[in-house]
């Protein structure tokens, strides 16, 4: 067979072959390795208590409890605020909830502590029966996860205190047991 | 001459290439620009802080971790293929739920996207769901990602 015939045969075969290759599925594959380390953690949120002041930011870990205008003898209009008056001071209080959720841990309970964000030389702050300072005070050592636990904040104001606005940050820390 | 015409398959196989690319603002890939890359989320949890580029949504009983990665596919003869289909699968089964662009991954190939353009980095979202009940510890999963010329 001459060279001319070979080229012609090649051309014929090529024309018959190329369309089939063009139709064939052309693919390319890569591998993506994904790594992570899952850590245990717990999350704390403040929750409304039905008998207490409605929190701004309920359901988050940064809430505000506005007690409104308080005094020893005038009416207190803020729903959820309770008052008691003694000989030299008065105390207002409100319940609120703390909910702690756990993730990726076998911990069964948690410890709750609270502290004032800054010292208060005039008023006294308590959570439940515990007087707060700027150092963490233990509020309980075996709280259950997953549901709001009711606590009550108390603010005691001496009759000698000046009138005016009061604002205080209370920091809460939950620690997995 | 006949031999050349009858065995062009290897040439065609080289027409399409797939590389993984980093996406700005997301977790950077080790091996970006190649077809074998690693994406390390680092330490993840439901409530603690996360690495830059990692996002999280927390639900009642689980949380979802996500970031983005890019796929860049090229084709030497674009006349033969206007675009490509992207598929992915897990190399082995995982106790966690993995998704790419919202498509749940398994060991069987799943289509992530169709009509993907060549020669540009297309971002995709990779996410996985961690139940609160899942044990802490290291997680490694390998994805096979395949571009199929259309």
Give a description of the structure.
The complex is a heterodimer of chains A (177) and B (150). Chain A is mainly beta and 177 residues long. Chain A contains one helix and ten strands; from the N terminus they run H-E-E-E-E-E-E-E-E-E-E. Chain A is elongated, with a radius of gyration of 35 Å. The N and C termini of chain A lie far apart (91 Å). Chain B has a single domain, classed as Immunoglobulin-like. Chain B has helices at 2-6, 9-13, and strands spanning 16-21, 29-30, 36-44, 55-58, 62-75, 84-90, 97-100, 103-104, 110-116, 121-131, 137-149. Mean pLDDT of chain B is 92; it is low at 1-12. At the A-B interface, helix 1, strand 1, strand 2 and strand 4 of A face helix 1, helix 2, strand 1, strand 3 and strand 5 of B. Strand 1 of chain A pairs antiparallel with strand 11 of chain B.
Write the layout of secondary structure elements.
The complex is a heterodimer of chains A (177) and B (150).
Chain A: H1 3-23, E1 27-38, E2 41-47, E3 82-85, E4 89-103, E5 109-116, E6 124-127, E7 130-131, E8 137-144, E9 149-158, E10 170-176
Antiparallel strand pairs in A: 2-4, 3-4, 4-9, 5-8, 5-10, 6-7, 6-9
Chain B: H1 2-6, H2 9-13, E1 16-21, E2 29-30, E3 36-44, E4 55-58, E5 62-75, E6 84-90, E7 97-100, E8 103-104, E9 110-116, E10 121-131, E11 137-149
